[in-house]
Design brief:
Elements: H1 3-56, H2 71-102, E1 105-110, E2 113-118
Antiparallel strand pairs: 1-2
């Protein structure tokens, strides 16, 4: 192989490796930001539920066995369980929506820089 062909082959190989590095950087960056956002959002709605339980748990006998609850406490517990379930479903639905929304963005964490850009219609 002559020198020019060797240089051309090395150049193409370098470009291919650089494209692979960039692809992996974008993929890993997107996964990282999805994880960070998911953790923060979960902490928000789980923390809110915890605060409600701390402040109002006495209404449904939060620390009591169900067999020891009064009819009023049982009714409050039923209301709370329904409310809690709706909050969790909504929070998890929003997590899925964020994950789907992030599919529209190119995310790159590179050497301390954080770059987020919206993809155009061609996926770039």
């Amino acid at each position: 192989m002559d020198v020019m062909k060797s240089l051309d082959l090395a150049s193409r190989k370098y470009k291919e490796e650089e494209q692979n590095r960039q692809f992996n950087l974008e993929k890993n960056s997107k996964l990282k930001i999805q994880e960070v956002i998911s953790t923060k959002l979960r902490t928000t709605f789980i923390g809110a539920l915890s605060s409600i339980e701390e402040s109002f748990g006495f209404l449904w006998g939060d620390d009591e066995d169900d067999s020891k609850l009064t009819p009023t406490q049982l009714k409050w517990k039923e209301i709370w369980v329904d409310c809690r379930t709706r909050i969790l479903k909504n929070g998890n639905s929003q997590l899925r929506a964020i994950k789907n929304e992030l599919k529209n963005y190119i995310v790159v964490f590179d050497q301390g820089k954080k770059i987020i850009s919206k993809e155009d219609n061609n996926g770039y």
